[in-house]
Every structure is written in C-alpha cells, then in structure tokens.
Design goal:
With about 110 residues, the chain is α+β, with helices and mostly antiparallel strands. Helices cover about 30% and strands about 20% of the residues. The protein has four helices and four strands; from the N terminus they run H-E-E-H-E-H-E-H.
C-alpha cells in the first residue's frame, strides 16, 4: 500500500498508461490507464478495434509531447472516458494520388 502511495505521489500530474495496437487497422492505437487495463472498455470499441495487442507502457506528462497526439487530450480522455483512441494518420495525398496506387479514386484523368 505504501509503495502505491509513493508511485501516486511521484506521478502527480502525470499518467501511467499502456498502449495497444489494433490488428485490424494499421496505425490505430489505444491508450489506457495501466492500472485499469482493457477490461472495462466499451464493447463497441473492442468490436471495431479488435483484440488489443500490448505495445508499450509509458508515463504521460503534460510537458512531454507525443508525436501524433496532443498529450493533454490523451490524458483527459483516459481520465474521463477510460481510453484514448489514436486513429491512423491520413494517407500522404501525393502517394494516394499517384498512378498505380490501389486506392486512387477513379476520375476523368485516372
């Protein structure tokens, strides 16, 4: 009990989270409170996300930015909703529009 209190004091203003990736969608990640894990996540979320695959644990801190998400938003969502869902980055438009790309929209100049 005393050790947990020490960790809570050390993490004041920070959040110890676990990060999971989706097997269904490349680049989609789920951030959750490490102590709570994935047990209480909404069923509809898990149906879309698939079985979470643990990637990493990290301490989120307002003064330590994340590469693809606003750290304050991630922390707020985890505290309020119990999770933060990071969507894949948008496709590079130049690559997306390149001839031969399988997802290039069909159009008059396609």
């Amino acid at each position: 009990h005393q050790a947990l209190t020490g960790v809570a004091l050390m993490l004041k203003g920070k959040l110890f989270c676990s990060i999971y990736k989706s097997r269904r969608k490349a680049g989609m990640y789920l951030y959750v409170d490490r102590q709570k894990g994935t047990g209480d996540l909404p069923e509809v979320l898990l149906n879309q996300f698939g079985k979470p695959v643990h990637v990493s644990d990290m301490i989120l801190s307002p003064d330590r930015p994340l590469a693809r998400a606003e750290v304050a938003k991630v922390m707020d969502d985890i505290r309020i909703k119990g999770f933060y869902l990071q969507m894949p980055p948008p496709p590079d438009e130049d690559m997306f529009m390149a001839d031969g790309h399988p997802d290039k929209p069909a159009g008059p100049d396609a």
